[in-house]
Fold this protein.
Amino acid sequence: MEYALRTNALTKVYHGKNAVSKVTMNVGRGEIYGLIGKNGAGKTTLMKMIMGLAAPGTGTIELFGSTSLDEQRKRLGCIIESPALYPYMTALQNLENHRILLGLPDKGAPVKALQAVGLTYTGKKTVKHFSMGMKQRLSIAMALLGNPDFLVLDEPINGLDPTGIRDVRDLLLKLNKEDGITILISSHILGELYKIATCYGILNDGMLVEEFTKDELELRCRRCLKVEVDDAKQACILIEELFHTRDYDVLDGHIIRIFGQDIDSGLLNKALTGSGITVKTIQSSGEDLEGYFMERMGGTKHA
């Protein structure tokens, strides 16, 4: 796999405390990588180091297979914390001002960025009259000015209403799928992050607890009925006959996990024991997404 970003044992200490501690992460080219963690977990500090806005204490960063970071960072765009928007300027004026500050030679870049985020219709309307969602899309347009290959976005949907969240979500999916832009995004809204991310990293107290793909997440959180029996082979035959399903697996030779079925555990137990199969345990298993994330973030799910 080609990587847009790789870090190795990246560490940052503030006031004697590790804000980021030995983080080794891998973001593949073309991925949408969801960075998850509570407030203070180290997400923003990590992103600042990636962008060169904070110097690592120890550890290394590699961008697009290179450690020549000054050159490779020209291929990045970012929104970290609150981007500076001039309220009495139009969207186009804000972008032109930002282009000049960045020293970008392409005078057509502001119009292209507005088109990319769907804000060409705003015309002479000044930013002070924009909705929160429009402002966030304008911020993403600013991050797109340099025609980046990789976007680093810190909480881009924070504070948005459902319509604004949907608009930003659709925009990010479009940028990823149609333009091939790799995206590193942090968010507290786990359900929304699940809708767009292709892989995840969980930060807890500055440490990267776990990295996994969306497919791995779905397998881990897939609900099932788990049955422990003395004769798994015969139990599987009975399950196929009785419930007309082969969506199951067998663990350790005697634990059967049945997926995708609303099965009455009492009926299953009666059928198995009636066929001479000893049932040792039978229980529902699997986690919901929120519970899975919260446990690994060092918190608990509230009812």
Remarks:
- The CA atoms of residues 77 and 134 lie 18 Å apart.
- The chain has a mean pLDDT of 90.
